[in-house]
Amino acid sequence: DAGVIQSPRHEVTEMGQEVTLRCKPISGHDYLFWYRQTMMRGLELLIYFNNNVPIDDSGMPEDRFSAKMPNASFSTLKIQPSEPRDSAVYFCASSGLAGNTDTQYFGPGTRLTVL
Amino acid sequence: KQEVTQIPAALSVPEGENLVLNCSFTDSAIYNLQWFRQDPGKGLTSLLLIQSSQREQTSGRLNASLDKSSGRSTLYIAASQPGDSATYLCAVHPWEAAGNKLTFGGGTRVLVKP
Fold first, then answer.
1. Which of A16, A87, B90, B109 has a CA between 20 and 30 Å from the CA of residue A39?
2. Residues B13-33: tens digit of each pLDDT
3. CA angle B62, B59, B37 (to 5 degrees)
4. Is the dihedral of CA B109, B20, B49, B81 positive or negative?
C-alpha cells in the first residue's frame, strides 16, 4: 500500500487566498484525521471523520477552516481566506483496518506558508 | 482536559548509550498510549502502542512501559544509533472518546552523536 497520500507537499500563498489541501487515506481505513503542527502549539487535532461523516470538529480554529470527505478515498481541508498565522504543517492520518483500529498512519504532511 | 507533557524537549547522547524518554499525562483514564517517531520534514510513524491493561510493550531495541496510576510512560531505546536521531512523541487516547482522538505531547528531539 502507498500509505496516506497528501498533496501538495508545499504550498506558498498570499494572505486572503483560498487554500485547499488534499488527502487520500489508506484503502479500507474508516477513520480520517486532520492535524496541524506548529512550533508554538505542537500537534493539534483539527477534525476527524468516521465512515466519511465528521465526528468531532472542535479543533477547527474558526469558520475560515472547513473539511469535507465526499467518499472513502478522498478528503479536503480548505482555508478561506488564509492568514499568515495559518502557516503550519498540516497532516492527514487514517486508521481503522480490522484488528488494528487504534494505530494511526500519517501522511508526509503539507507545509503551508501564508505570506 | 487531558494534558500530555514530555521532558526534556531535547536530548543529546553519544552512540551506544541507552535512551530514556519520558511522557506524563494528567488524566489516568486512558484507553491506550502510543509512541511515535517523526523525522525532519516527514510524518509520524507509530512505534509502539500500549493498551491500558498492559504494563509494557517491546519491539526490537525499543521498550515502552506504562504506569497508569502515576500517569507516566517511558520509552527505552537500547544501544542508540545515529539513525535513532529524530523527534519522539507520545500520545494518549482517552477512555471515553469515540474513535481515535489522540492528545499529543510536545515531543523530545533526540540527537545521537557518532
1. A16
2. 999 999 999 999 999 888 889
3. 60
4. positive
Closest in A31, A96, A106 to B44, CB measured: A106
Q: How far is CA A47 from CA A23, A114, B70, in A?
A: 13, 21, 30
* Chain B residue numbers touching A102 (CB-CB < 8 A): 31-32, 34, 49, 93, 100
Neighbour-count burial of A85, counting CB atoms closer than 10 A to its CB (0-12 exposed, 13-18 middle, 19+ buried): exposed
Give the C-alpha separation, B81 to B17, whole Å.
8
- Residue contact A106–B45, C-beta within 8 A: yes
Q: Mutation test of the interface with chain A: which of B5, B90, B102, choosing the one with the most A Cβ atoms within 10 A?
A: B102
Residue B109, min C-alpha distance to chain A (Å): 12
The tens place of each residue's pLDDT in chain A, 115 residues long, gives: 679 999 999 999 999 999 999 999 999 998 999 999 998 888 999 999 989 999 889 899 889 999 999 999 999 999 999 999 999 999 999 988 655 557 889 999 999 999 9
* Distance separating alpha carbons of residues A80 and A97, to the nearest angstrom: 33
- Please indicate if any CB of chain A lies within 8 Å of the CB of B106: yes
CB A19: neighbour CB atoms within 10 A?
Answer: 21
What is the least distance, in Å, from the CA of B87 to any CA of chain A? Answer: 12
Q: Which H helix or E strand runs over B24?
A: strand B19-25
